[in-house]
Amino acid sequence: MRKTYGVALIGCGHMGEAHLSQIYYKENVRLEYVCDLDEAKALSFQKRYGAGHFCTDSRDCISSPLVDIVIIATYPSTHLELVRQCILHQKHVICEKPIAPDLEEGRRFVRLVREHPECKVLVGHILRHNATYQKVADMIRSGAIGRPIVFRMVQNHHTMDWEKYLAILKEASPLLDCGVHYVDVAQWFTGARIQRVSASGSRTEEDVPKDSFNYGFMTLELDDGSVGYYEAGWSNTFSSDNLKEFVGPGGSIRIIYRKDRQTHQEEGDLIEYYKYPEKEYEMINLQSDRKPTGAQFDHLIRMIEEGCEANPTIEEVFESFEVCCNAQKQVLDKLALR
User: Fold this and answer.
1) Which end of the chain, N or C, is more open, meaning fewer C-beta atoms within 10 Å of its C-beta?
2) Mean pLDDT across 114-129
3) Same domain as 146, residue 62
4) Does residue 314 belong to any structural domain of this protein?
5) What is the radius of gyration, based on Cα positions, of the chain?
6) % the chain with pLDDT above 70
């Protein structure tokens, strides 16, 4: 008989919903608890997803003998203590990125995870479980566009709910909050390590906290000769923009999400593959979830049942986190001089 797992969600917001919407109906899941400081949110999630209990104190669900797995979908400043409590009560964990609001707390997070291998901890680098990115990773690592590679990555948001973004900015800039995904992508796709990062940024909204910024741009140099840039901004006035293009001497690959396609959205994501010197285009359609939290959860189950390693590993998580922390610090140091 297939084992079932009691699951608790802490954080009934956007990412909390992204998790539950893909796992609450799984045959091996018993949704025991939903937790949020806002009681109305927790109650709403309980009703929507059929959770056994709701609470406003995370200690209630973490200590419950009904719970085997805790999903942490809260702000970065809460992650370390929540993971510590989970390990104390012998729970397995999926924790959203970034792992912490600063480098020192991130080091403590990683140290804690390493010291307790009996508790499986998977950090939510969701692109590792995305079928489109997995396909592109396989293409690049098999030599489809050659080496070195230029990574062109942009993710700007025209905010329709500025207060939501402002709350995130109090914890992390866009370069840290989103950048960890794409720094990880550069290292994952190439197998190379980032050896140098340079960053600049700006505050374009008056209410952005002085210890943060809402626009950032970083350039990356990898030890295999590849380079790249990542641009991220959130504001009331930016245009929404999403570019994921990878260029090499033997061609280029561009990811166009289903939602951004002009036609044939029913075919899923589009991978546009240009081959050189053939000068031919190949269009690859791929059904893929933007945020495949279900596949990510399945990987945690394999970690528990089969002993496979985390994807990404905690070492890889920290590498991308450290690069983005360094980029964020460079921007803040420059802004302090203006």
Assistant:
1) N
2) 98
3) no
4) no
5) 20
6) 100
At 215-234, the pLDDT tens digits run 999 999 999 999 999 999 99
Question: Domain containing 230 — which CATH number?
Answer: 3.30.360.10
pLDDT of residue 1 exceeding 70? no
Same domain, 243 and 332: yes
Is residue 78 domain-resident?
yes
State how far the Cα of 33 lies from the Cα of 50, in Å rounded to an integer.
9
Residue 180: exposure state from Cβ atoms within 10 A (0-12, 13-18, ≥19):
buried
pLDDT at 306 (0 to 100)? 98
Instruction: Calculate the alpha carbon distances from 298 to 160, 251, 311, 312 in Å.
Output: 33, 34, 11, 14
β 241-248/227-235 pair status: unpaired
Whether residue 107 is found in the same domain as residue 218: no
Look at the chain and report how many structural domains it folds into.
2
Range of the domain at 47: 5-123
Could you give the percent of the chain with pLDDT greater than 90?
99
Alpha helices in 2-130 (DSSP H): 14-23, 39-49, 58-62, 79-88, 103-115
Residue that finishes a domain, picked among 70, 102, 123: 123
- Give just the sign of the alpha carbon dihedral 208, 82, 178, 336: positive
CATH code, domain carrying 13:
3.40.50.720
Name the helix (H) or strand (E) containing 156.
strand 150-158
Q: Sign of the CA dihedral 81, 85, 90, 92?
A: negative
Write down the pTM of the prediction. Answer: 0.96
Q: 3-class DSSP state for residue 119?
A: coil
Domain final residue pick, 94, 123, 152: 123
CA atoms within 13 A on the CB side of 216: 30
